[in-house]
Amino acid sequence: MSIVRLFTTITVLVGSLSMPLMAAELNIYSARKEALIKPILNEFSQETGIKVNLITGKADGLITRMRSEKMLSPADLLLTTDVGRLVRAKSFGLTQSIELSNLSNLYIHDPNGHWVALTKRTRPIIVNPEKVAADAILTYEDLTKAEFKGRICVRSSNNVYNQSLVAAMLMQQGEEKTLEWAKGLVANFARPPKGGDRDQIQAVAAGICDIAIINTYYLAAMLNSEGDSARAAQKVQVVWPNQDDRGTHINISGVAIAKYAKNITEAQRLIAFMLRPSSQKWYSEVNQEYPVVPGIEWSKTLKDMGEFKAESVDLEQVGHLNPKALKIMDKAGWL
Ligand code: FE
């Protein structure tokens, strides 16, 4: 009897000692700010018992890090915004094909499963409604009109959101028209590009310019803030361009499984978790991004900005056209 008890005690001891080594883990390299991702990762850990180790940084920095770490990289997942970056990671050989059979309801992903979209974001135009008539701008092309000379603010061409905007136009309108557009846009700049999207919203509100191009989640976050930032956001109005033709530019945030991932099952579980309705709703409420899964309710702020027709392009191709887009911006003098 006592031998059995001793044996049981030893088994329990060995079991508890080996537990920490056996615990499932997941290493994430995230270009998304910790505050914008941590709550949902905590929920995932609580539910699954999988410990998540999060390393946050700038997307290009994380990609460079993975390239230099090579097969020693601890990263299981790369979480980042913009298809341009996901395609870049894939083209550097930093990703691997994800088994998509259990993710049948998702509809934006790399053709070979190298990345999966988690949210959608859109990049429309904003105006100061006191200075720009409601029907003066109906398309991105309208931004090149002579009447808007010295009235447009937009961030730099080294920003991937603008690169993807131009890449998507390039894909749909061809090189000649896109270069003409970029030149016309640059000719109408109110100032040399500087700052982020929030700064462009502030600039429109402050009267430095009357028009800007921005991602809506920045505007939504400002609307939900307090003080100067909220007041600035309230002064601008969203214009959904190209509603009668190709639609407003959209992009994604997404995730890729790292080429040398060791915790693939856990990585797949997290992706499935991120795509389930409650997580998609969380993204919309907290990050003010659009769900990728159909039928999920948008946040109130997004609903208030209105529904719109989004462009329908092969995002993988948009990613591939990134270097060409950059060349066009350069040629047009978009700093
Ligand atoms: Fe952003």
Fold and architecture overview:
The protein is of the alpha/beta class and 335 residues long. The protein folds into 2 domains: 9-120 and 251-298, Periplasmic binding protein-like II (D-Maltodextrin-Binding Protein, domain 2); 122-249 and 310-332, Periplasmic binding protein-like II (D-Maltodextrin-Binding Protein, domain 2, 3-Layer(aba) Sandwich), CATH 3.40.190. Helix content is 44%, strand content 14%. It has 14 helices and 11 strands. The protein has helices spanning 2-22, 38-48, 59-69, 83-91, 160-173, 175-187, 197-205, 216-223, 228-234, 264-274, 277-287, 300-305, 315-320, 322-331; strands at 25-30, 51-56, 77-81, 95-96, 116-122, 125-127, 152-153, 211-213, 237-239, 250-258, 290-291. The strands form 2 sheets. Strands 1, 2, 3, 4, 5, 10 and 11 form a 7-stranded mixed β-sheet that branches. α2 links the parallel β1 and β2. α5 crosses α6. It is globular, with a radius of gyration of 23 Å. Residues 1-20 have low confidence and may be disordered. It binds fe (iii) ion. Fe (iii) ion is lined by residues 81, 215.
